[in-house]
Design goal:
Number of domains: 4
Helix content: 10-25%
Number of helices: 3
Order of helices and strands: HHHEEEEEEEEEEEEEE
Structural class: alpha+beta
Distance between the termini: 95 Å
Mean pLDDT: 83
Low-confidence stretches: 5-22, 29-37
Number of strands: 14
């Protein structure tokens, strides 16, 4: 008598057994068996093999976390910059670099954008975006805030000690974020002032180039202005040195702390972030 199919497959089967609900497919794709299973025809094996592959794919799809879409991250960064840049002089334009689409971050349901300490919505910067749920993570997105506006430029060479007049100045337009911080935009703040040194024609006129009258006197009580993301704080202090507009001022606060800021044209001292 020829050997039974079970013995040919290497299985010792004493009695017929019911088919297994979760059969194992042999690597050759032709036949399979174990102690609780019996051989199936090749067609049945192929059907079971395809069903196992589909079940495995479904399992992988349900266990891999969803990936964070780039657009919400970019929108959060842009909306923050739009709020922070409101009121800036000139024509403001904001560019946020695309967030990497191949990130491995889990999808977030609560995004919050913020500016790092010491940063402001001006020129090139990085905007932080943090996720609070369901898994906490933080990324930084490069961005640029451009402010196109007019500023003063010397129309001719200016001698040291010369008094600036209207004919000595012209206006040009450019991105103000690329110019020095004390570049002048208002002609009234330059005319009638003496230059500290010679200035070449075509030079952006800065407050530091002029002999400006002091706006802060030593021992004077001054208003100290500081701020950060979404807030602005005003305090009172006593100036420790005299300063003209745009010059550094050291101020002692009521608690004894000494801070340094920049004298403004109105006599206030501003501490930039």
């Amino acid at each position: 008598m020829p050997p039974s199919p079970a013995k040919q497959a290497g299985c010792a089967v004493r009695r017929p057994l019911p088919r297994c609900a979760f059969p194992w497919v042999a690597p050759d794709g032709q036949a399979w068996c174990n102690r609780t299973m019996r051989i199936l025809p090749p067609r049945a094996v192929a059907v079971l093999f395809r069903s196992q592959i589909a079940a495995l794919a479904l399992l992988c799809a349900t266990t891999v976390p969803a990936q964070q879409p780039p657009l919400p991250v970019e929108q959060a960064a842009r909306q923050l910059l739009e709020r922070e840049a409101a009121g800036l002089p000139g024509d403001v334009s904001i560019a946020v670099e695309p967030f990497q689409a191949d990130n491995r971050l889990p999808a977030c349901t609560g995004l919050e954008a913020f500016l790092p300490a010491g940063a402001r919505a001006w020129g090139r910067l990085s905007v932080g975006v943090r996720c609070s749920a369901p898994i906490a993570w933080t990324v930084f997105v490069p961005a640029r805030v451009a402010v196109i506006g007019e500023y003063l430029v010397t129309a001719r060479p200016i001698r040291a000690g010369q008094i600036i007049g209207s004919a000595d100045l012209i206006r040009q337009s450019a991105d103000l974020t690329t110019l020095p911080e004390d570049t002048l935009r208002d002609e009234s703040r330059a005319t009638g002032k003496h230059t500290r040194f010679a200035v070449a024609a075509g030079t952006p006129l800065r407050a530091g180039m002029l002999r400006l009258p002091p706006v802060v006197q030593q021992g004077q009580n001054v208003r100290v202005i500081s701020g950060g993301e979404g807030f602005r704080v005003s305090n009172e202090g006593r100036a420790l040195n005299r300063a003209a507009e745009g010059e550094a001022v050291r101020v002692r606060l009521p608690g004894g702390q000494v801070v340094q800021g920049t004298a403004r044209f109105d006599g206030a001292v501003e501490i930039l972030p």
